[in-house]
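ligand=6-O-phosphono-beta-D-glucopyranose
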Amino acid sequence: EKGGFESFMDKEIHDQPQAVADTLRGRTDADGRIVLDDLRIDEAVLRSVDKIIVIACGTAAYAGHVAKYAIEHWCRIPVEVELAHEFRYRDPIVDAQTLVVAISQSGETMDTLMAVRHAREQGAKVLAVVNTNGSTIPRESDAVLYTHAGPEIAVASTKAFLAQITAAYVLGLYLAQLRGNKFPDEIATTLDELRDMARKVQTVIERGEYVRATARSMKDADKVLFLGRHVGYPVAMEGALKLKELAYIHAEGFAAGELKHGPIALIDDGQPVFVVVPSPRGRDQLHSKVVSNIQEIRARGARTLVIAEDGDDDVRPYADEIFWIPKAPTLLQPLLAVVPLQIFAMALATAKGLDVDQPRNLAKSVTVE
Ligand code: BG6
């Protein structure tokens, strides 16, 4: 069943191009318009939505954090992202104009299910973004948008994360189409870019050996930091989560802009820090700000492990290691940038002799609150 791979996780990392492609398949008609047949929420209701709240746990919540940037940008609807267990117990403000998006690989996570029930009791519409057909969360939701990642066996989520981002982006583009926020040709172009991501994810996987070799050389690390900005921030948090889950190493993801407000105190000689660098072609000087962050931490002794776009020569002087990823629009970069972080965590755990498919104390699906 592992198809010749050394673990399910390794196989599932290699399944990721397919997961992205399959999640996009069949979502457009002959005119290139997005059609979501499985969505059973009235279009008029979706047009009247004035707030979106994403609820999820773990990796699925980080997919939600990524989606917030894209959906707000495309649809101009405020998006909140909240851990399902926090949402449920804080008297959240939801009403009939609120669209709650519940993201879950298994569709069985009890914390997420309880939040779904609570949201519906308050009159919100709930749309489930779920990987497992016929599971409980979609059954109890108003609508479902399935991710088509195929069964995910390894406890630590990989391909489901890419599929969740992809599905949430399709949802964002659909809402933009429905509400007239974007011209049809802009939506078609973004969809084409999204379709092209499967090929680029494959490229990142093919470059995995260098990441593995780096991980093997770092098996004695006892704490690893991850920095990212904009959509790279949730990627940093997901990279840290993978390392905690698989290698039992204390890891934390930070917003790069927050560095000087605290985390830089953690930097001392040899401290490994991953940095996800935004596209140099993006707006808002995000790229140069993050390059300055790399320079600052390196000056304080950090060992910098940089994820950067092909051709981004600005990072070279400050990077101890560079993991190159293909060029992509800023909002789509997470689908590429997370892959070296997954491979790194898996390879480091393997080098420590750990079971990457069944990490200690964790369950694939947590069906208790
Ligand atoms: C955790 C799993 O218990 O639940 C994580 O170990 C997962 O990998 C999280 O991200 C949420 O699970 P689900 O099935 O709701 O996406």
